[in-house]
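Case study 2.
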Amino acid sequence: LSLPLYVYESSSLNPKFIFADNLSFLQFVFHTYTTGFTLLNGNGTAESEEHPLQQKQIFHGLGAISYAACIGALPLVFMNRYTLKSSLTQLVVRKLLPAPLLGLMSAFTVAVVRSPEFENGIEVMDRNGKVVGVSQKAGEKAVKETALSRAVLFGTAFFLPAVLMYFVERAKVVKNPRALASVRMLMITSVLAGMLPVSLSMFPQCGEIKRAELEPEIQSSTEETELFYNRGI
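Prediction:
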């Protein structure tokens, strides 16, 4: 995970990547990686014959990747296009905006590529692991939880290293550009290593949902007060 995040950060903070083509390509690489991970680690509910789930997810994913890459590059491209070089603009566009934008786009790609889960539903089970039914509401809950955890993971993993690097550069502890790149990579890896278990533990892998929140046909098919589902990663 640290390599694609480093690629994204380099494209946003390094002036030599200010051109639209470079920004869009590098962010396309990052979002392709994370979207592929999402596609492989979603809920395992089988697709219906009418809805070829994997093919639909791939098309959704390609659209989400392209959109996220363009939106991620847009602030820097806009700043460069209109030569907005004031210190306030530089602070907002290069330091403050990338972290929430990355978190938002990471959540967006999760929601798009896993949209068939809340359109077609996912399996819900009782305490013994017996499948009770397929629920759209459980699918919606699973996707929302995963999108939020992904936003927290990448938003924080981008924000903290950027803040730490600001103080490192200001203190002039490291002056060599290559050494600075190595320090940035180390910080990203360290923050990711700490944030990964935090984001995964925000919501349990085996999610719970109350029977009263599910569709009427599922409520009538069981007496269990709480049912369970696979949230995915």
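The two ends are 14 Å apart (CA to CA).
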